[in-house]
Amino acid sequence: QTMLQKHEKDPYPDWKAGTPVPYAALCKTFSLIELTTKRLIIMEHCSRFLRQVMRLTPDDLLPTVLLMINKLAPDYAGIELGIGESLIMKAIGETTGRSLQVIKADQKEIGDLGLVAVKSRSTQPTMFKPKPLTVRGVHQGLMAIATVTGNGAQGRKVDGIKKLLSSSDSHLKEKVDINKDKGGPSEAKYIIRFLEGKLRLGLADRTVLVSLAQAVVAHEAEVKGKIPSTTDLENGESILKTVYSELPSYDVIIPAMLQHGIQNLREHCKLRPGVPLKPMLAKPTKAITEVLDRFEGQTFTCEYKYDGERAQIHYVAKDASQSSGVSSIFSRNSEDLSKKYPDVLAKLTTWVKEDTKSFVLDCETVAWDMLEKKVLPFQQLMTRKRKDVKTEDIKVKVCVFAFDLLYLNGEAVVEKSLRERRELLSTAFVPIEGEFAFATHMNGQELDEIQTFLDESVKASCEGLMVKMLDGKESGYEPSKRSRNWLKIKKDYLSGVGDSLDLVVLGAYYGKGKRTSVYGAFLLACYNASTDTYETVCNIGTGFSEQVLEDLYAQLSQITIARPKPFYSHSAGGQHQPDVWFEPKYVWEVKTADLTLSPRYKAGWKEGVDPAGEKGISLRFPRFIKIRDDKKPDEATSSRQVAEMYRKQESVTKSKGPSVDDDF
Ligand code: ATP
Q1: ∠ at Cα 193 (188, 199), nearest 5°?
Q2: Atom nearest to 463 CA in ligand 1
Q3: What integer pLDDT is reported at residue 242 of this predicted model?
Q4: pLDDT > 90 in the chain, percent
Q5: pLDDT in tens, 396-436
Q6: Would you please indicate which residues are annotated as catalytic (active-site) residues?
Q7: What residue owns the CA closest to ligand 1's atom 31?
Q8: Is 314 near ligand 1, meaning CB less than 6 Å away?
């Protein structure tokens, strides 16, 4: 409370109605958030600030929210951040007149490049006072850094960083102390952390979304001279959550909300072709009996689980009013895959009935054997180039297996039951052999029918089955949720823990014997979304061929860093340190025999699996399966999921909680 009061007394004299939001004001809020771990207090700081922005400079609401969630644009815009440490160190050195050697030594000692920047700035004599930074200016500056391409791009990125850094903290009367209050409200610190892709405030995207809803509701009430009720706040929150799950783009939502008010947002912001939704995901199961227990008394349906790449296909026919139309394919993490699948896009219109004018389909693209007319293994699909594919050069043909329909002829259909959506799918589309098909399904409810269908799916080169709720409200499509209404059974569910894990590579150990010139083993981690940290879960040295180890060395040796990032949670004991550390970049799929508690690893240590709160979960006999190019590090298996798998295995409790959107 005292901190809040202090903040109130510390206004920004330059920030008047209609003037740009000072970046310093946002950083002040960040620094208050950084000093607490309490979610409610974090939310309070966040929504207070957003309310102030609405009151004074609503035009800056969008860049403010984007800077809070460490993004410059929606995911599908493909704007990559995460600038490597070496470029950042170069920029800090050049801005502050310190040598790269000194910066590197500082980084080794301090470990947080944000604080290294603060330290460097504070030892630097200031000749002149540059103009203070604004939120919109910083957003533009960062955007310019992220989007430069072509000749000399690296150099221009460094220049861009230098420009921002040299204007940072010009408003501060006293120099910031890196030891006090985690470096305080320093702008340099947050600019650097933004560039690294981690603000490390404990400010989850979800919290920003809820705070935004609260700020808007409170502001709208204030304008009418009212105080918002709890129901108003809850309604606002629920509206914004639903809208964001169907249309995850603040670039669209925020202007609409400012123009039409939060109450009318649903009318103006609906699922729309061109903006990818976060896909619905499934929960793993270990046995058919587990599936039957879950769906007891309710109808479900089984589908083949194809082993390819998830594809959300968006289409709007060109017509007189809409000049260009829409025709795009998006990946599981909303990346635009249109350049990878020009052959698929070219065929879209041949799959539809004449009166199908627009749609969004949820599908799996699978490599297809034209001669044998059957599905090929996933590895074949991965040999396709990711970018600038020319249709005439394509060797691996794909067949698209559609399993859901989210939008049809101008209308979102996500709330309809799966039975109805399937019905619409089959009336609006026509299968074409080897190009477009409906996922094979079976509606039998008996154990032996499911077992037979599972065997058939494996014979057809699939990974197993997806079992889905078929009727009623619960069978609606739940964007961004890992839902209990979709279960997966993988063919190898009888051994192991029922599902593979997708883990981030944090470090490596040099090989022994024949393997001394490459890494022989690796340190992997899962992702804790609530603390925004990577928690170590195992060392892995099995499942790699010599060739793969060489390829991995070539890839990973490019992204080594001097010491672990401050957001890596690992056991500090000396003998367990890897020989090299990496930037968090690559996600690998890994199988394990089972899970066990270990003082050496940190996975899920805050999830209550170890009553003493010290041990983490670790994988026993982990085995490398493949690189998951379609997942970013923060889409790795979450600590909560690892804990859930562990609990299931231990049968400590039977997981029967509600759906959680841990992939949000
Ligand atoms: P996985 O490693 O199993 O793909 P994931 O985290 O990517 O894990 P899950 O929700 O666990 O996703 O599994 C569902 C995935 O299976 C979907 O993302 C999709 O790519 C694929 N899939 C294949 N066939 C189907 C189907 N019939 N229905 C839904 N998803 C399917």
Answers
A1: 120
A2: 23
A3: 92
A4: 66
A5: 899 999 999 999 999 999 999 999 999 999 999 999 999 99
A6: 305
A7: 305
A8: no
Q: Atom 2 (ligand 1): residue with closest C-alpha?
A: 500
Say how many C-beta atoms besides its own lie within 10 A of residue 521's C-beta: 20
Q: How far is the CA of 465 from the centre of ligand 1 (A)?
A: 10
Counting ligand 1 atoms within 8 A of each CB, the residue from 313, 488, 501, 631 with the most, and so the one to mutate, is 488
Q: What is the pLDDT of residue 274?
A: 94
Band of pLDDT at residue 174, cut at 50, 70 and 90 = confident
Q: Is 416 exposed, middle or buried (0-12, 13-18, 19+ CB in 10 A)?
A: buried
ipTM entry: 0.96
Extract the runs of DSSP E, i.e. beta strands, from 541-658: 560-561, 568-569, 580-582, 587-591, 594-598, 616-620, 623-627
CA of 305 to the centre of ligand 1 (A): 7
Taking the model in full, what pTM does it have? 0.82
3-state secondary structure of 138: helix
Q: Which residue has the tokens 């310019």?
A: 144
CA distance 50 to 52: 5
> Among the residues of 2-112, which ranges form H helices?
2-8, 23-34, 39-56, 61-68, 85-96, 100-110
Helix (H, G, I), strand (E, B) or coil at 235: helix
